[in-house]
Specification:
The chain is mostly helical. Helices cover 65% and strands 1% of the residues. Strands 1-2 form a two-stranded antiparallel ribbon. A hairpin with a 5-residue loop joins β1 and β2. α6 packs across α10. The protein is globular.
C-alpha cells in the first residue's frame, strides 16, 4: 500500500494538479480566436463589414436628388464622393453612433453568456482552465475580433471607395485639402481612437456577459446603456456633467481633419475611455471570480 501511494505522488504536483499540468498552456489565445471566428455571428459581422461600404456606394451613386443638391448643411456627406478617403471618413461617421456600437457589444457581450447558455462554461472550467485565464482569453479574443472588424470596414471602404470615386486627396467640408500620405496617417489615427473609444461599450457588454446567461441581455443592455447616455448628452441643461458621459467624445476623431490638428478633445476622450474600460473590465473579472458557475 505504501509503495502504491509513493508511486501515485509522483504523478501529483504540490498544488494537487497532475504532473505536467501547466495552467498557462490551457486555452491558448489562438484556439479561442479560431473558436470565436468560426461562429456564425462573427462571420455575419465580417460579412456586414464588407457589404456595408458597397451598399453606401450604391446609395451615393443612385440616391442623388434635387433635395440632396439643395442641402446647405456642410458635413462629411457633402464631400463623401470626392475620393476614396473621403468616402471612408463618411463610412466611419455614419457607423460610429450605432452600427459599430452594436458590433463591439455583440463581439464582447456574446462571449461568456453564450457559453453559460449552452452549458459548456462549466466543462471548460473543469478541463481544467483557470477561471481568470478563461476570462482573459475571451476578453482578448473579443478585442482582436472587434479591432479586425473595424479595420475590415475601413479597408473595404478605402479600396471600394477609391475604385468608385478615385484615389485622391481628402477634401474637408471647409475646403481644405489633405494629401494622400498624410490622409492615410490621419485615418490610422482616427481608427486608433475609435478602437479605444468603442472598447468602452465592449467592456460594458463583457461585464454584463459575466452576470447573465442570456447573450441578448448582455448585448442589448450595453447598447441600451450607451443609447441612454447619447440621449442625455443632447440635454444642454445637464451642463458640464455631459463631459463625463462615456459617449461624450465619440466624434472627437473628426478633429484630425483640422489643420493644424487640435488633439485636446481626443486626448481627453482616450483617457476617459481607458478609465471606463478599466472599471467595466475589473467589475467583470470581480463578478466572474465569485460566480457560482452551474451551467
Amino acid at each position: 500500500m505504501s509503495a502504491t501511494r509513493a508511486g501515485d505522488t509522483g504523478h501529483v504536483q504540490p498544488t494537487g494538479a497532475v504532473a505536467g499540468y501547466r495552467p498557462e498552456r490551457t486555452l491558448r489565445l489562438s484556439v479561442e480566436l479560431r473558436r470565436q471566428f468560426k461562429r456564425r455571428r462573427t462571420l455575419g459581422v465580417f460579412a456586414l463589414m464588407v457589404a456595408l461600404p458597397l451598399l453606401l456606394i450604391a446609395a451615393l451613386q443612385l440616391g442623388a436628388s434635387e433635395e440632396a443638391a439643395e442641402n446647405t448643411r456642410i458635413n462629411l456627406v457633402d464631400v463623401a464622393t470626392a475620393s476614396g478617403l473621403n468616402f471612408t471618413l463618411f463610412v466611419l461617421f455614419a457607423t460610429t453612433g450605432f452600427f459599430l456600437v452594436v458590433v463591439y457589444a455583440l463581439l464582447f457581450g456574446d462571449t461568456v453568456a453564450v457559453e453559460a447558455q449552452w452549458g459548456s462554461l462549466r466543462y471548460a472550467l473543469a478541463t481544467p482552465v483557470p477561471r481568470m485565464r478563461l476570462l482573459r482569453q475571451k476578453w482578448l479574443a473579443a478585442l482582436v475580433l472587434s479591432v479586425a472588424a473595424l479595420l475590415t470596414l475601413a479597408a473595404v471602404a478605402v479600396v471600394a471607395g477609391g475604385i468608385a470615386f478615385g484615389f485622391g486627396d481628402i477634401q474637408t467640408p471647409v475646403g481644405v485639402s489633405i494629401g494622400q500620405g498624410e490622409g492615410m496617417l490621419r485615418l490610422a489615427g482616427m481608427l486608433g481612437y475609435l478602437a479605444v473609444h468603442l472598447l468602452v461599450v465592449g467592456a460594458l457588454a463583457f461585464w454584463f456577459s459575466t452576470i447573465t446567461d442570456a447573450p441578448l441581455a448582455a448585448v442589448g443592455g450595453a447598447v441600451f446603456t450607451m443609447f441612454v447616455f447619447a440621449i442625455l448628452d443632447q440635454v444642454e441643461q445637464l451642463g458640464s456633467i455631459r463631459d463625463w458621459f462615456p459617449t461624450a467624445e465619440e466624434f472627437a476623431w473628426t478633429d484630425l481633419l483640422q489643420t493644424p490638428v487640435d488633439s485636446g478633445d481626443m486626448f481627453r476622450g482616450v483617457i476617459q475611455s481607458l478609465v471606463y474600460i478599466a472599471i467595466f473590465t475589473a467589475l467583470g473579472f470581480r463578478h466572474f471570480s465569485r460566480r457560482d458557475v452551474t451551467s
